Amino acid sequence: MDYTLAALKIFSSQLADCTEAPSSEGSSAAQMLNGIRFQRAWIQGVILSADYSEAGDGRLLLDDGSCIVDLFVLPREAEGGYWRPGMYVMVIGPYIAAESNDNYPAIKVHKIVDLSSQPDREAMWYMEVAEAYNLFYLPFSAAASPAPPS
């Protein structure tokens, strides 16, 4: 994992537009979205369901308002079945297209945080994604795009 690549603040519906990034010697596998190379997505939303296995891992379904995403939670994060339907959470992890089921994008959770106690969490999230897009992603993707023909 290349931690010099930022986790993109995106809506889960945008994961459908991701492509596999071209690999280069010594680089880890990555995704591309609008010309931006990334390894981890940052999304926020409401947990719809939580299913924990006897092996200790968990599978959560999360709705961020744009679509539903499948979350694969490692045993250390799933311990005690803490994550429950109705919680509003922040999730960071790699998009794992090969694991997508039921036409849902899938993320392997590296970090999950309960934000349920934050009163304006959902409205702020939409603003954060829009701000990140306008300040960082749009200028970067415009610079990476070829110039239109004259």
Automatic annotation (TrEMBL):
Q: Which InterPro entries match?
A: NA-bd_OB-fold, RMI2
Q: Name one Pfam family in it.
A: RMI2
Q: Gene3D superfamilies this protein is in? A: Nucleic acid-binding proteins (2.40.50.140)
Q: Which domain of life is it from?
A: Eukaryota
Gene Ontology biological process terms in this record: DNA repair; maintenance of rDNA; negative regulation of double-strand break repair via homologous recombination; pollen development
Q: What is the protein named?
A: RecQ-mediated genome instability protein 2
Please report the organism this UniProt entry assigns to the protein.
Sorghum bicolor (Sorghum)
